[in-house]
């Protein structure tokens, strides 16, 4: 078994002051990485600011003989976070987009601000930090990025229309960047973890939070950021030591003749076949997804 090391690599972790982010920071540092611990120090709703959480993690890393610096900038100013990495260590090799907030409300009660705040931290924030890191990763022909999605984005969850929307948005973001980064040896993946954190504490019992240790998630994240990693554009679901890779699945579908009239009644008559998963496909690219569409169009040619 070959040890996975990050000597001379620089790792940037947003939301690194606690929970999953802290666990990532300590593990990467233990494996030789120089770490930028970014944390605004806000509460779970995105309010307030404090330098304490980032400083404490940096102190932990330094106490174990590692190298780390703190960043207190919001992910909405992602360029400042990456500038901190460049100023301190001269490069950025790994980016973990982990920062997050919650504004859980039923859709009926959700305000524009509840929607906007969650969007700006999770999706816009990931865009800003990644955009700033992207130029450096392309120039050095190397990069590892992990974005944090959620089961709520994959499956939906009551009271989390805002959170679900941006978390699934991060999956699409991940898949496109994986395509664009391939030529420059940049891999981009997404994880949908469940782990004990400040966010989970708001919706789960204390014993559940304790059982879902962040340390159960960290090994997969480290593996996805290894130098030998070639996995890219993938989504993983994990919690409590269980890990799995997800893929899209769709029914075989129904091909209606484009040369004939297709009505709602025609669709209704074929509904059972259209929705049946007895025969399925697993398209992984836009091109693969378009195969039956193109085949059906050829019938009208």
Protein architecture, described:
- Helix content is 45%, strand content 16%.
- The chain has 301 residues and is an alpha/beta fold.
- The strands form two sheets. It has an eight-stranded mixed β-sheet with strand order 3-2-1-4-5-6-7-8, with helices on both faces.
- It has helices at 19-30, 52-63, 78-89, 112-140, 151-155, 161-181, 198-201, 206-211, 218-224, 264-269, 271-275, 286-300; strands at residues 10-14, 34-38, 67-71, 94-97, 143-148, 186-194, 235-239, 242-246, 250-251, 280-281.
- Helix 3 runs parallel beside helix 4 (112-140) and helix 4 runs parallel beside helix 6 (161-181).
- Total count of helical runs of at least 4 residues: 12
Shape: globular
- State the strand order across the main sheet: 3-2-1-4-5-6-7-8
Total beta strand runs: 10
Return residue spans where pLDDT drops below 50 for at least 5 consecutive residues: none
What is the arithmetic mean of pLDDT? 93
Residues in helix, %? 40-55%
The biggest beta sheet reads:
8 strands, mixed
Compute the separation of the termini in Å.
57 Å
Order of helices and strands: EHEHEHEHEHHEHHHEEEHHEH
Rg computed from alpha carbons, rounded to a whole number of angstroms: 21 Å
Strand content: 15-25%
